[in-house]
Write a structure and sequence with these properties.
The protein is α/β, with parallel strands linked by helices and 279 residues long. It is built from 11 helices and 13 strands. Helix 7 packs across helix 11. This is DegV family protein.
Amino acid sequence: MIRMISDTSTLYAPKDAEAIGAAVTPLSVNINGNTYREYADINATDFIKLIQDGGIPSSSQPSIGEKMELYERYPNDDIIDLAMADGLSGTYQSACGARENSAHKEKIHVVNTKTLCGPHRYLLEKAIRLTKESDDVHAVLNQLQKSIDNSYSYLMPQDFAFLKRGGRLTPMAATIGGLLKMVPIMTLTEGDVKKLEKLGIKRTLRGAFQMVAEDLKAKGIDGNHLITISHALCPEKAMIAKEVIQEAFPDCEIWMLELSPVFITQGGPDCIAIQSILK
């Protein structure tokens, strides 16, 4: 049997992931001297209120011990652990460390998904479907890799200070922090270890969404891809994004998702993420 493991970068609460046959570990946020496990101890609404009241958040990944405990539940099964993009979080490195300390590490496959949020959620759902069709762990991994290799992400932050504090920017990208009367469009760097870099700057949010649509078109996105729009509790702005993306890609399925506290920590309140992945 193949067991699927991931974390709340999938935007799945642990109980909801369990319902589809997966186990996810909650990521944690720190604010006002307290640590909260997202989806367990705090939700996005309450978290944003703490920020609005002056709290400065930071995030942390699951511990190696927590991952090892999860791995040891299934000593006789193959395990696929779909980790959030290396470079944007230490989650992947923690999972690799847990694997190395496991008594059955040869049966544990830690995957750097090179993505997060919407595409990460899709990868978990795809993996669940694949494991119902096949018990060949390497065949499942190969199919997942095809999607991983064809994923793109864009972020439109409303408060650049969150990204700068998190250290997830390239040095050049960090210099645009003073331009927030404009709308910066960030995208993930190439390679296995991800950072955020500047794609461009627009005067309006709609213009930013149109730039993302143009870039996705240049990358060949079509009806074989899923597009996700995730937002930090700003549904009106997310609907503008959906209008622009739906017009540009009428054949694409579009998911609308709410970001969790960890990703609000990274992108800030009111941020919008647009992402795509090959189905």
